[in-house]
Structures are given as structure tokens and as C-alpha cells.
Design a protein that fits this description.
There is one protein chain. Helices cover 74% and strands 0% of the residues. It has 9 helices and no strands. Helix 8 packs antiparallel against helix 9. The protein starts with a helix and ends with a helix.
Length: 185
């Protein structure tokens, strides 16, 4: 056990480890990485990068597991949507990317020694978190995507919708932070 502890202590002092996993990226490095990943995604898959559209598929697969049928729903009526649903969860590129985002974020948090459980301050905090998450998800579906699909992918395509989304994203963040401070802090 001593050698394993020694390994982790040495790793924690390593300059490359600290730079890549402990310290935050600069805004320029983050922008460059987002650009490279977006270009790679477009090159490989022939479509823009998105996240929330896949959640509709996840909901449909869960609904099918309990005996539901989504084939008559307008959103899933197209041949391509049916092909995606029939291929299954692990054959869907969006599902794999979303799992990569989830587990990649967890891994990055663990490697940076930043994972921790926080105390829940009040029932009000839980209600605000759940309500906020539901509203963000609903808003992302209404907007045709989240900050990745509706903002980054649209802006790099020079679509006006991305710039409008960005403007209202800023307005929503401003108003949300004011409400957060007023009612939950």
C-alpha cells in the first residue's frame, strides 16, 4: 500500500499533471478545444454537435421499456428517427457522446481531487435545483438545443439563431442569478 500512496503523492507534484488536471484551462485554451472538437465532430459525423436531442431518444427508449409506443408521435414519426430508435441505445452516437460527457466530467473531477458531497442546506434548495433543472431541460428542447447545439454549433455555422440564443442565454443567466440571490442565498 505504501508504493501506491507514494505514486499518488509523486503524481500530485508532477507539473504536467497539475497543468492539465488540477488548474483550470484558460479561456483561449477552452475555446480552441471546443473549436477542434466541433470541427472533428462535423468531419466525422457530418452533423453539428448536439446533446439534448439525444435525451428525447432516451425518454422514448425508457417509455418503450415499460410497454409504450412512440412510433405515432410526430417527433419520432420520421424514418431516420425510427431507425435510430430501432438501432438501440448503444448504437446511437448521441448516447455514446452524452455518456462520454458524463463520465468524462466525473473522471476529470476525480483526477483533480475535486469530487465531494455537499450538505443540502434546505428543502428550498432541493426544490430550486429540481425546478431549475426541469426548466433548463424544457427550455433546451423548446430552443432546439442547449448551449452546445443551439449556441456553439449554430454560431460556428454563422446561423443567426445561435447569436439570438446567446443573447437570451445572457439575459436568462442575469435574471436567474438575481432570483437565486434574492430567494435562495
Amino acid at each position: 500500500m505504501g508504493k501506491l500512496n507514494e505514486f499518488w503523492l509523486k503524481l500530485g507534484k508532477n507539473k504536467i499533471y497539475k497543468t492539465l488536471l488540477k488548474e483550470p484551462l484558460t479561456y483561449i485554451a477552452g475555446a480552441v478545444l471546443l473549436s477542434v472538437f466541433n470541427i472533428a465532430h462535423l468531419s466525422v459525423f457530418g452533423s453539428g454537435w448536439g446533446v439534448t436531442g439525444t435525451f428525447a431518444n432516451w425518454g422514448a427508449w425508457l417509455y418503450k421499456l415499460v410497454g409504450g409506443d412512440v412510433s405515432n408521435w410526430t417527433y419520432f414519426a420520421s424514418e431516420s428517427a425510427q431507425k435510430t430508435l430501432n438501432a438501440g441505445f448503444m448504437n446511437d452516437g448521441g448516447s455514446i457522446r452524452n455518456l462520454g460527457i458524463i463520465f468524462g466530467a466525473l473522471l476529470a473531477t476525480l483526477l483533480a481531487s475535486q469530487f465531494k458531497f455537499k450538505n443540502i442546506k434546505s428543502k428550498k434548495q432541493v426544490i430550486a435545483a429540481v425546478l431549475g433543472g426541469l426548466l433548463m431541460g424544457y427550455g433546451a428542447r423548446l430552443a432546439g438545443g442547449c448551449n452546445i447545439g443551439a449556441l456553439f454549433t449554430s454560431i460556428v455555422s454563422l446561423s443567426l439563431s445561435g447569436f439570438i440564443f446567446g443573447l437570451f442565454l445572457l439575459v436568462g443567466a442575469f435574471l436567474g442569478s438575481k432570483l437565486l440571490v434574492k430567494y435562495f442565498m
